[in-house]
Amino acid sequence: MELNKEIIKSRIDIIERNLREIKDISAQKSFTYRDELALKHALLECIEACVDIANHIISVKGFRKAESYSDVFKVLEENGIIDKDLSERLQSMAKFRNVLVHRYANIDFNKIVEFSRKDIKDIEEFIKIILNLIK
User: Fold this and answer.
1) 10, 33, 57, 69: which one has the fewest Cβ atoms less than 10 Å from its Cβ?
2) Between the CA of residue 11 and those of 19, 22, 38, 45, 51, what are the distances in Å?
């Protein structure tokens, strides 16, 4: 079975649309409550789309089944799709997703903004790798 390029491209479209919003919002100096909600949602959609892409690759390639959201990136690393450094950063991102979804603690919005400004480059790097993979 081959990778379904349409599934992957549809997830990349979601990521790219949300990355634009993340960049616009996180560039601001002050934030409304609506900005906070939008930023959290855009981050969540980006992370989940990356996980969807990873799960699709794992399934089609017959790699071992991931045990968690963060483990999908470890599986890709084990199979040479992404390197260890990016894998570790994406695993952290997936754990951050759990904080966003489950609200384990009242996360400081400044940390979300910092993540948005600093760590979205990892998502962009992941997308470049995936686009090369499906060429």
Assistant:
1) 33
2) 12, 16, 18, 9, 10
Give pLDDT tens digits along the chain (135 positions): 899 999 999 999 999 999 999 999 999 999 999 999 999 999 999 999 999 999 999 999 999 999 999 999 999 999 999 999 999 999 999 998 888 888 755 788 888 999 899 999 999 999 999 999 999
Which residue ranges make up each domain of the chain?
5-133
CATH 2.40.128.110 fits 5-133, yes or no: no
122 within 8 A of 18, measured Cβ to Cβ = no
User: Which residues lie closer than 8 Å to 134 by C-beta, 6 or more apart?
Assistant: 3, 5, 8, 9
CA distance 93 to 17: 18
Q: Please choose, from the candidates 8, 25, 1, the residue with its C-alpha nearest in 3D space to the C-alpha of residue 135.
A: 8
- Structure tokens given for 66: 């991931």
First to last CA, the chain: 16
